[in-house]
Structure formats: C-alpha cells, structure tokens
Amino acid sequence: MATRPNDSPFSERGFADLAIAALGGLLLAVGVPDRRAQALLRTAGLALIGVAARPVVERAIRGAGERRRTVKIRESIELERGVADVFTFFKDFENFPRVFGGLKSVVDFQDGRSHWEAYTPSGRVIAWDTEITKYVPNSVIAWESVAGSPVETRNVLRFTALGADRTRIDVETAYRPSETPMQEAVHALISKSRQARMRADMDHTKSYLESNAAR
C-alpha cells in the first residue's frame, strides 16, 4: 500500500518534525553550571520533542480508535415469544431505539428505506440512510447503508421458531465509519467495546420482548 506524502518522514512535515526533535535533543544535551538555566533548557528540550512526536502519537491514536470503531459482530438470543410477534416488532425499524441503546432515533418510511441517527462514542449524533436488501416474513431482514453515507453498515436479522412461544434471533452487523476524528478515536479507546454493548443490547431485547409491557 502506498504511503501518503504527509505520513512520510521525508515529507516537508517529516523534516520539520525531525528538526524540532533534534533541537530538543540538543537542548537536553547542553550542560550549564546554573541549575535554573539547566532546568529551563531541559523543560524546553522535552517540550520540543513532545511537539515533534505529537503527529506520530496522533496517527497511532486515530488508527487504534478507528479499529475500535470498526466492527463485525455476530450475536444471538433465545426468548420466550412466538416468531411472528418477534418479527412484527423488528420489521418496524422505529422500534429499534427501544432496545438498542446507541440509537437516538429511526424513521422507517415503510418502503424499504429508513433514516437512522445514533450516538458516537463522544456523544455526537451521526445520521445515515439505509435500504432493505432482503426481506422474508418471519425469517430474515437484511439492510445496509446507502452509498455516500458517513458510515458503512450491513445488518442481518434471522428469526428461527424454536416452538410456539420461543424464538431465536441471530444478528450479524458490520459497521465502519468513513472517518475517525481525534476526539472520536480517544472516546472509542476508553469506552466499552461494541461487542460488549451489543451483548448488553441483546440481553435488554430479551427482557423487553418478554416483559408484559411488550406484549
């Protein structure tokens, strides 16, 4: 894979960072008899090295944060509800925010298209549109984001009747943001993983659909 010019140590920015780091190293190496002057030189040298290292550190954080935000998850639950009831709940995407905590809202246009809003790790709201790619009553619902969305997402729900009043739901979801700002990268690194959040959402789904309020 080709290296972008701005990431290369031989770019103008790379040479500038090297020069700053070298100057910082020189200041650390300078010896003067006055302790106060020596402390000032040491502080200035460390500060310059920190400035030079910042782009490298930022790229590392962005890369780690983007990997944390990019997910492919498979989960499943079994619940005490008939498959027709469960499918009816999920075929209306506007019900999703009731059980999935990261979603702010969903507008289901009832024609295969829908508009989604979700919270990012830092608490911002991100919005995108989707379209259904597969729909089999009481069996499968699949949908994905439209071209040009700020996130690329593909989702599949499979429903299996295990009895008259018992259903298994298998979930497959893939999510990748088109970009990861520094603030989002930091929050993604310190927040609960999407796998853990999905597991918590699935447990909440089971509790919600089995409760009297959901009947």
Overview of this protein structure:
This protein has helices at residues 12-29, 35-69, 83-91, 182-190, 194-210, and strands at residues 71-79, 103-108, 113-119, 125-136, 140-145, 151-163, 166-177. The chain has 2 domains: 5-66, no CATH class; 70-214, START domain (Alpha-D-Glucose-1,6-Bisphosphate, Chain A, domain 4, 2-Layer Sandwich), CATH 3.30.530. The chain contains 5 helices and 7 strands. The chain has a 7-stranded antiparallel β-sheet with strand order 1-7-6-5-4-3-2.
Summarize it:
By secondary structure, this protein is an alpha+beta fold. The protein is built from 5 helices and 7 strands.
Number of domains: 2
CATH class of the largest domain: Alpha Beta
The whole-angstrom Rg is 25 Å
The count of β-strands is 7
Distance separating the two termini: 54 Å
Classified in CATH, the superfamily of the largest domain is: START domain
Structural class: alpha+beta
The description of the largest β-sheet is: 7 strands, antiparallel
Q: Write the H/E string, N to C.
A: HHEHEEEEEEHH
Keywords:
215 residues, alpha+beta, Alpha-D-Glucose-1,6-Bisphosphate, Chain A, domain 4, 2 domains, 41% helix, globular
